[in-house]
Amino acid sequence: MIATTRVGWQTTLADLALILFMVTAAAMAERPDAADPAAAASPVPARGEPLAIYRSAPGAPPLADWLAEQPHDARQNLTIVARYAAGKSAEMAAAAVALAREAGAAGRSARIVVEPASASELTAVLDFDGRASGTGIAETPARPAPRAPQESDIGR
């Protein structure tokens, strides 16, 4: 008697379920845990690779001094993130605008993000996302034009 192995729909379904589980597990490993308060309070904006983070606090150096210590690149963005506790939105927005003016005096333009949080906090994030000076268009290096064939190229 010859034994034959049959693969039924149950085996195919089990394989697909295993693949779905592995893809889901890999995706969950990439994202921060929603229950982790440190991940939720991260001063990093939604876009860009953060290079440096400045926290406005008593005893902190002025933003202009901090910016002078950072390497300058036209593709960098300065984002001021103002998180406000209940009832402090106007105060934190005004503080963010003042920080943006200080950055402007230091020769850097800034975007401002104001969002609710459990505690008030003012940060500035230098990020790098490949945009060219806020144009929203990624820069690519220019390629030289192709060389037209010459008569001397014939026979090579």
Task: Describe it.
Helices cover 32% and strands 20% of the residues. By secondary structure, the protein is of the alpha+beta class. It has a domain at 46-128: 60s Ribosomal Protein L30, Chain: A, CATH 3.30.1330. It is elongated and about 85 Å long. The chain starts with 8 loop residues before the first helix and ends in a 28-residue tail after the last strand.
Give the structural class. Answer: alpha+beta
Rg for CA atoms: 27 Å
CATH architecture of one domain: 2-Layer Sandwich
Question: What is the residue-mean pLDDT, rounded to a whole number?
Answer: 76
The tally of strands reads: 4
- Element order, helices and strands? HHEHEHEE
Spans with pLDDT under 50 lasting ≥5 residues?
131-143
In short:
This protein has 156 residues and is α+β, with helices and mostly antiparallel strands. It has four helices and four strands; from the N terminus they run H-H-E-H-E-H-E-E.
Which key features would you list for this structure?
156 residues; alpha+beta; 60s Ribosomal Protein L30, Chain: A; four-stranded mixed beta sheet; 4 helices; 4 strands; 32% helix; 20% strand
Give the secondary structure arrangement, pairings included.
Blueprint: H1 9-30, H2 37-40, E1 49-55, H3 63-69, E2 76-84, H4 89-105, E3 110-116, E4 121-128
Parallel strand pairs: 2-3
Antiparallel strand pairs: 1-4, 2-4
